[in-house]
Amino acid sequence: KAGVTQTPRYLIKTRGQQVTLSCSPISGHRSVSWYQQTPGQGLQFLFEYFSETQRNKGNFPGRFSGRQFSNSRSEMNVSTLELGDSALYLCASSLERGGAYNTEAFFGQGTRLTVV
Amino acid sequence: AQTVTQSQPEMSVQEAETVTLSCTYDTSESDYYLFWYKQPPSRQMILVIRQEAYKQQNATENRFSVNFQKAAKSFSLKISDSQLGDAAMYFCAYRSLTSYGGATNKLIFGTGTLLAVQP
Q1: CA atoms in the 13 A half-sphere facing the CB of B19
Q2: Cβ atoms within 10 A of the Cβ of A8, count?
């Protein structure tokens, strides 16, 4: 079955612009999480969505936002881009059913964002 | 807040030999999950092995096994019979069972260990 799909794979933006990244989870997965990976800060949790509701949020400024659609696809948006937003953005999806918490996170290949 | 520490930024192992990657964590929770993820140059994170904190038995997946010491809050990964394809960045990760009374899939990662495999 198809894995987690992130689009686009690479993106170059200018400071001050905004960007939208997309994540399509594995079919049937309702939980989607986003992470930012940089050489300096490592992997940091951005937010988590489940059934169109934000369930958890990391310590990022309000310029970072996200949403999840009824088909579980998720988007994250970064407004007023800064040079420090250059990073690999990873999306992960998980299957949750009937309160079962024993779920594995499957990651996409990421979107490499470069802000110039 | 939970934290995960990987004190070995880089490790090297000869092909066919055994290597152990270290991970310690800090938490006040009694139930949680621990994971080792592998990130090759392709950047896709791949789950290597998972350990539930309530299970005393150490998890094993083929050539990969863990040494889970709950009291010491230690979770090391042993790779036996190392292969060239094992070369990658390895991340230790922690996941709470719940967050604010609800489920969560949020992962807290360590800083990673870059493993090189010498032929």
Answers
A1: 21
A2: 12
Tell which residue, B78, B113, B73, has the closest CA to residue B94. B73
Write the CA distances from B111 to A18, A40, A113, B7, integer angstroms.
28, 9, 20, 8
pLDDT of residue B100: 57
Judging contacts by C-beta atoms under 8 Å, the chain A residues touching residue B105 are 31, 33, 48, 92, 94, 96, 103, 105
Whole-number Å distance between alpha carbons of A107 and A29:
12
Of A45, A102, A110, the CB nearest to B106: A45
What's the gap in Å between the CA of B44 and the closest CA on chain A?
5
Record the tokens describing residue B31, joined without a space: 């139930």
Distance of CA A83 to the CA centre of its chain: 19
Q: Does A56 contact B52 at a Cβ distance shorter than 8 Å?
A: no
C-alpha–C-alpha distance, residues A82 and A59, integer Å = 16
Cβ contact A42–B108 (<8 Å): no
Q: What is the mean pLDDT of residues A67-80?
A: 97
User: pLDDT of B18-54, one tens digit each?
Assistant: 999 999 999 998 889 999 999 999 889 999 999 989 8
